[in-house]
Amino acid sequence: MAKQTKKQRRAAAKRGAAKRKRNPKKKNNNKSKSMWKKITTAAVTVAGLDNIAGHDMADSSGAPLADRAKNFINAVAGRTTGFNPIPNTPYNYTQQVSVEGMFNKYTGMGFFSWLYGNLPIKQLPYKSQAKSFGKKMSVIGAITGIFKPQSHNPNSHNSHRATVQLHNNGQVITTQ
Known about the structure:
This protein is mostly helical. The chain contains 5 helices and 2 strands. The protein has a domain at about 35-150. It has a two-stranded antiparallel ribbon with strand order 1-2.
């Protein structure tokens, strides 16, 4: 290889500088994106599990950790499939499917996060993250809300249903 002259070296350095100027080194922003993805996934998972098993976990409050774990497993599996994988425990749950549970705090949180992401104001921070988080949270809240145990709250929408009882003598009693 022939030795370069001063003029050739200056020209090569100039080309290298021009190339660096055209293609500035991009900042590595993947770390924050992956952290956001992990946080979103964790939040949505916890919300879904709380939606299904949160009400049933009160049955084992104050119990040892192993009993609480059995209750959690039976609550999640029992509410979604109707099968309780851990038999011979006082924590046995049946499958309940209810459209009433679809509209819950997680669905509302997801809807308003999505709404925030769709606002036409460019200066708001984290709009795209809020939009994707809102979609995920709304979907998980609605799906897991189907299996949520029905509330027996007197302020609930179900409080005005009529109950029909049939007695041995053929008498029918309707109560509210």
